[in-house]
Amino acid sequence: MSALRFPNLPPSEPQGCDLLAQERAKTTFSVNDLSVYLYGEEHLDRQQKFLELIENEPAFDKSDRYFLGRTERFAAALKKDHALVKLSQEQKWTPEEFTQADLLIDTPGPFGLHRGMFMPTLASQGNEEQQEKFLKPALRYEIIGCYAQTELGHGSNVQGIETTATYIPETNEFEIHTPTLTACKWWIGGLGKAANHAVVMARLITAGKDHGPHAFVVPIRSMEDHTLLPGVMAGDIGPKFGYNTTDNGTIWFDHYRVPHISLLAKYSSVKPGSGEYVKPPNAKLSYGTMVLVRATLVGYARIALSKAATIAVRYSAVRQQFVDKDSPKKVNGKIIETPVLDYSMQQYRLFPIIAAAYACHFTSKEMMRLYYLNIKNMASGNFSLLADVHASSSGLKSLTTTIATASIEECRRACGGHGFSSFSGLPLMLQDYSPNVTWEGDNYMITQQTGRYLFKSFRELVAKRSSGKFSASSITNPTLAYLNTYLDNPNLKCPATTPAQFHNPEIQLAAYGHRAAHLVSEIVHALDVEKRSWNSMLVDIYNASVAHCELILVQNFILGIRGDMPQPEGISAPVLSPAAKEALTDLSDLFALHMIHKQPGQFLASGYVDAKQVSMMGKAIMDVMENKIRPNAIGFVDAFAHPDYYLNSALGRFDGKVYEAYTEMATREPINQTEVIEGYEKYIKPFTNPEGKKGKTIQARL
Amino acid sequence: MSALRFPNLPPSEPQGCDLLAQERAKTTFSVNDLSVYLYGEEHLDRQQKFLELIENEPAFDKSDRYFLGRTERFAAALKKDHALVKLSQEQKWTPEEFTQADLLIDTPGPFGLHRGMFMPTLASQGNEEQQEKFLKPALRYEIIGCYAQTELGHGSNVQGIETTATYIPETNEFEIHTPTLTACKWWIGGLGKAANHAVVMARLITAGKDHGPHAFVVPIRSMEDHTLLPGVMAGDIGPKFGYNTTDNGTIWFDHYRVPHISLLAKYSSVKPGSGEYVKPPNAKLSYGTMVLVRATLVGYARIALSKAATIAVRYSAVRQQFVDKDSPKKVNGKIIETPVLDYSMQQYRLFPIIAAAYACHFTSKEMMRLYYLNIKNMASGNFSLLADVHASSSGLKSLTTTIATASIEECRRACGGHGFSSFSGLPLMLQDYSPNVTWEGDNYMITQQTGRYLFKSFRELVAKRSSGKFSASSITNPTLAYLNTYLDNPNLKCPATTPAQFHNPEIQLAAYGHRAAHLVSEIVHALDVEKRSWNSMLVDIYNASVAHCELILVQNFILGIRGDMPQPEGISAPVLSPAAKEALTDLSDLFALHMIHKQPGQFLASGYVDAKQVSMMGKAIMDVMENKIRPNAIGFVDAFAHPDYYLNSALGRFDGKVYEAYTEMATREPINQTEVIEGYEKYIKPFTNPEGKKGKTIQARL
User: What region holds the Acyl-CoA oxidase C-terminal domain (chains A, B) (predicted)?
Assistant: First the structure.
């Protein structure tokens, strides 16, 4: 039993549960209707079903999560991954159902990359024989794999990896080898301790010729007893900022021989014996998968944003601090301190995060639709969507994961001191979410892909416009559309003269389009006319990608509310109630205007708006936050439908019993299990009572 | 012995040590001279001496730091605090020397608040008898104390705390009591397990009258055996984002009686028997201490910035990625990948952080000088400096700790994936530094203090100017000076027409002064003329405080280089070599121009600069970064003189042997101590080899 016991007293009045009840009574729309609009009934029902299966199962218990050290957390994650696979086999879950359950448990475990990268790589790059031999047992977890690409010395520059796989015609084998210390594979999730196979990216060398990185599937640990196979050395890379429940690993190979079937050969292959290299067809095909991964990450950004916002917004409605002298709050005639959510600064910090979550929701939906449409198009040889979708997905991955990471931290700080406590749920969330800004393309680096596409589009459009054969009505691509509008009138001015006019979505879209096109135009001028180097323009290129993607987010938010967002084939558009539509429109306005108001520089420089208009936007924002969004704030976060089990936060509880939960969690802190700390005799007593005086002798001194 | 062994191979060429040697050969100034200019010889000699004393002492060893869980880390910190006190007693260190040694060890321990808050409070608020009774044994660590102010429900609003201390005339005692759950003290460093006394802030109640929060020194744990005293319940508040080596604690009191001497009575007191309350004199006196604490935090921001920058800049000189096609690097005629420090984006991310460290260095020096000058002035009844110094110190605490936290994270990400590894040193640094944005005044909230002063100054100045009795030459206060310049000509335009002209410090200062004054003027108009509420203006007020404090940072950087910064009395100005002065001027230019270029909105809105000029600044920045700062980047961070023991980072090593150190650290990861993880039998084998097949039987399957 804990040596720490709290008094049997309630928190000071008013109680958190009463405050949240009042908030919920103010909501102008049906929270459940909005949840259904976002996720669909089926998803919500399944969440409820999974919650019942999972919540009380010891392997999925979260109550000790914040107390465990790395070794214990990894052990618990291995146990959880085992239990979840067993459960999924019993329940016959689809991969989508598995993911939904796994997200609720919210612990990245050692089998995560087996599902996330190993099996998908086998499926997309393995030939039939390889799928039979490797993928089938992998689906049954007889083979547990990982994806070994990054090396100690090479991450972003995949083409620069050093590990080699040399074809040996005599034995029809490949010899995998690590030539330098920097060639050791590094960061490989699941490799440290769990995996018995790896997909290894290595430079394929046949007859002395280097064909660059190719994927090989290789056994690394004994199927008998899990020991490392001869010629392989592997282990865990140690503690990290987050993701400590996953065994990110390192591996190196000492002239390690694998059979010919190891080279994943759906697209490129080596002819047995002769060693002749067969090239892959269109390299563009692999871009499709990248789009899918990035759309998924935009969806995860929505989850992170909505989770952090739920915690911070609920706690801000419960936490009171100071009396606002200009408009003091009263309950039963008695002045109370003001809930911090009533302070305009708190609203300015938190409400745009709620809005960003919705923007990411609609954007990830649209990215998924485009992904499937593009896949279908490509199958019939139509690559028209690919470049735009790929470029936007790079920039959107970068922008949304940057926003989400910053927002988790903002939510953490907006909880005051208590956001620093692990029990708020926000520190671990920040730590586990953080790799998103680096993996799947470093957030600065990959914006160059977006930039390259924007500049190419701009140059081609300018050429077409001056060719005499141009017709604006032929433009279907949204990027070309806003670039063309800009070229029609680079000096366009915003017509708004009152704060209210900034609620017009056409004005919002024009501001974002004009600013993005202006940046693109300036950069193309610098590169092509001033002949500045690409390297010297990287900051501007990053800004152009951000501008392009902020426009997409604003656009998808607007379309997502209108309900006229294009739907995947065969799926009918969900219906949004008029009350919820009105409420979401407030959020959409805030989303568009807040980003301009907070960082107006590029908008001002584009010439579309002036300083007076930015100041008017400030008034529009303050007005919509105080009068429209504030009453619905709790409704907006409730609609995300994150159960308490998922949040695992004392501050973000649905019932508002913040302080009761928080103090209860503290009693479970391991060092509270004894009243006197173990180190007392050795490290404190020698100062405070060196002679071991007893009773009154020593107490009397003070 | 670790089950993980790395190959006996060097990293790929070129080697990190060679790259750093080349960098150092390019430095245009003497690194040692610059270090001496920053810290003085005495400080540097002492650092060397302390390093020798500390580095090889087991209690101060850092090699296991990143592997330990919270319980073990706290135990190690208690051991360290004990050993450091013993050492300081042997060495007869002054408090300043103690702090310097403690900073090198860089582990906030359970005795930290005893030194940082408990003893200073006794010294400043205790009368002579109390100093004799409590402070003297505290200096010998017979009493170990903490400072219990914050409660579960009240942090920022100290006036709202709920704990009461009721005077009982019959026994001449105070009864300390916790009336609600939210009144439990919370976050109290050192209270969780270590302290046997506490300074408790409680509402003093005499004869039914509430006199608000007062400080009481109370025993909480037995001097005999460290058990909690009857009527007191205390413990640790559990795991946190950082600071897990400190036992932040909670305490509550059940009608706990303490003697009359417990009320710290230097300023206010209660007459024994009658219970008559004696008011404190001028409340302003306590503002002085706040200025000191905040100046110290600005100094710590410098330490954090310089430490993070050292790691990221050194690693960015060693880490190579991609070949820059426009200007490929060669070594011995062979093209190598480009060190990431050569990419303009990396420079734009990291060089302003180096610059910010220097700006904070000079600013904290100047704040210290003003603190002592103000103390001297106040002693002779002169309060003329107090308001300005107090207001600026609030805003500077907020601004510099916000910059430092963001910069640690930026440095972490700028190390690519490896910044996510604990071995980079950056994750723990971020976690332990983070409370700075919340404690000693939440970074958003306290800017209201700065704002209030700025608006008051502006109103008074406007009134004076229109009174007819105004002479500009009478202005000595720097805030009034820039406000007055603005009022002289609110439509002033920047005269620069070329990028080079922005290197003129007068233009830089004018831009910052004009922007800050413009914001102040707009807010005063909104409050006084448009009658907008204070709450509705909080975002603008925050921006005004930032603008004011950015001006101060720019100003102090410029003065700090010129060598004409005012010196504390009796201290002669240190001398900066011409080469170092030139190099620091480049950094100062970058500091001033980068902030405008990155967030130009308010500068544009103020009318002082236009978009074309901001674009010119961009060119000036890119030029100074590539041609001036890049060659000196390693010199600038070396001059911070942070030893490897302090950095505790595989990436930031002085010798550049990054990958050797990094892999060596991984071998020490606890889960690498056995080849096969403990959970294998239970959680992996049931999938991979459920029937326990042996040897060829199972290997043959693949």
Answer: 504-688
CA distance, residue A28 to nearest chain B CA (Å): 23
Q: Does one domain contain both A482 and A591?
A: yes
3-state secondary structure of B63: coil
The pLDDT assigned to A629 comes to 98
Alpha-carbon gap, residue B61 to B664, rounded angstroms: 16
What secondary structure letter does DSSP report for A237? -
pTM (2 d.p.): 0.97
**Active-site annotation of A, residues:** 440
Q: How many domains does chain B have?
A: 3
Query: What is the domain-level CATH number for residue B139?
Result: 2.40.110.10
Together in a domain, B249 and B311: no
Q: Are strands B164-168 and B197-206 parallel, antiparallel or unpaired?
A: parallel
Residue A570 exposed, middle or buried by CB count within 10 Å (0-12, 13-18, 19+): exposed
Beta B209-219 vs B197-206: how paired, if at all?
antiparallel
Task: Write the residue in A150, A228, A239 that is nearest to B67 by C-beta.
Answer: A239
Q: In terms of Cα–Cα distance, which of A477, A549, A559 is closest to A515?
A: A549
Euclidean distance between CA atoms B35 and A691, whole angstroms:
47
Given B23, B410, B440, B550, the catalytic residue: B440
Task: Name which of B62, B89, B164, B345 to mutate to probe chain A: the one with the most chain A Cβ atoms within 10 A of its Cβ.
Answer: B345
Report the alpha-carbon distance of residue B551 to residue B450 in Å, rounded.
13
Dihedrals phi, psi of A336, to nearest 5 degrees: -115, 165
Q: Which of A539, A596, A614 has the most B C-beta neighbours within 10 Å, making it the best mutation to test the interface with B?
A: A539
With CB atoms and an 8 Å threshold, state whether B182 touches A12: yes
Residue A689 has pLDDT above 60, yes or no: yes
Q: Same domain for A342 and A231?
A: no
Say yes or no for a CB contact (<8 Å) between A153 and B683.
no
pLDDT tens, residue by residue, A533-562: 999 999 999 999 999 999 999 999 999 998
Cβ contact B183:B151 at 8 Å: yes
Q: What is the DSSP letter of B131?
A: I
Distance CA B175, CA B254 (A): 9
Whether residue A374 sits in one domain with residue A292: yes
Q: Are residues A372 and A275 in the same domain?
A: no
| End position of a domain, from candidates B589, B611, B638 | B638
Q: Is the dihedral of CA B636, B641, B643, B648 positive or negative?
A: negative
B68 contacts in A (CB within 8 Å)? 69
For residue range A234-290, list pLDDT tens digits in order.
Answer: 999 999 999 999 999 999 999 999 999 999 999 999 999 999 999 887 766 667 778
* Domain range for B124: 118-281
Q: B241 vs A420: CB contact, 8 Å cut-off? A: yes
Chain A residues whose beta carbon lies within 8 Å of the beta carbon of residue B671: 70-71, 74, 192-193, 236, 247
Query: Both A522 and A607 in a single domain?
Result: yes
Q: For residue B31, tell me if it sits in a domain.
A: no
Q: CA nearest B552: which of B345, B351, B399, B343? A: B399
Whether residue B201 sits in one domain with residue B58: no
* Domain assignment of residue A329, yes or no: yes
The ipTM (two decimal places) reads 0.97
Helix segments in B380-446, DSSP class H: 386-414, 426-433
- Contact list in B for residue A228 (CB cut-off 8 A) is 675
CA distance B181 to B236: 16
